[in-house]
Amino acid sequence: MGKKREEISKVDQWNVEALYPSFKEWEADLNKWGREGTETKWPEIATFKGRLDEDESILLEVIVIVFQFEKELEKLYTYAHLRHDEDVREEVAKQAHARATALLHDFKKETAWIEPELLHLPQERIEQYLQVEEIAPYKVYLEKILRLK
Predict the structure, then answer these.
(1) What is the 3-state secondary structure (H, E, C) of 133-148?
(2) pTM value?
(3) CA separation (Å) from 27 to 23, 62, 76?
(4) Rounded Cα distance, 45 and 61, in Å
(5) Which of 14, 21, 33, 46 is the most buried (most CB within 10 A)?
């Protein structure tokens, strides 16, 4: 039988409190990002669908938003995942992990249109976008997608 978390020295534990002090704070953040009851959980991203060929500012804006949201959702997931791994029998952590996983899945599903839309752009447009200074921090991300083309 393994040891309980309380029986293990703090220096040998994950510092999950650096992410969220407790499940209560985690839950509040999850509710903020989960946006239950809405058809589209992230309308800020959906408004860009079909518009990536307009100009580089549109592409930059959607990439910045997606990266920002994904960072927040990954934080939620990481906390739930680590808490779940502390004791897989713990029901609260098990449910949190399932909810965070589902939320991250929903996010990936709602942003799945981005890669195909980028791949559909003419090569000249892509080359033009990659030359924009503000897009430079995301160049590796874009080039990775474009290798599929």
Answers:
(1) HHHHHHHHHHHHHHCC
(2) 0.86
(3) 6, 27, 9
(4) 9
(5) 33
Phi and psi for 106 in degrees, rounded to 5? -60, -40
DSSP-derived letter for residue 66 is H
> Residues 96, 80: contact at Cβ < 8 Å?
yes
Residue closest to 66 by CA, chosen among 113, 119, 129, 133: 113
- In this structure, the chain runs to a length of 149
10 Å CB burial of residue 60 (0-12, 13-18, 19+) is middle
In order of 53, 121, 127, 139, 146, the CA distances from 124 in angstroms are 11, 8, 5, 15, 12
Give the containing element (helix H, strand E) for 36: none
The 8-class DSSP code of residue 53 comes to: T
Reported as a single tens digit per residue, the pLDDT across 76-125 is 999 999 999 988 888 999 999 999 999 999 999 999 999 999 999 998 89
Residues 91 and 97: their CA atoms lie apart, in Å, by: 10
Cβ atoms 103, 30 nearer than 8 A = yes
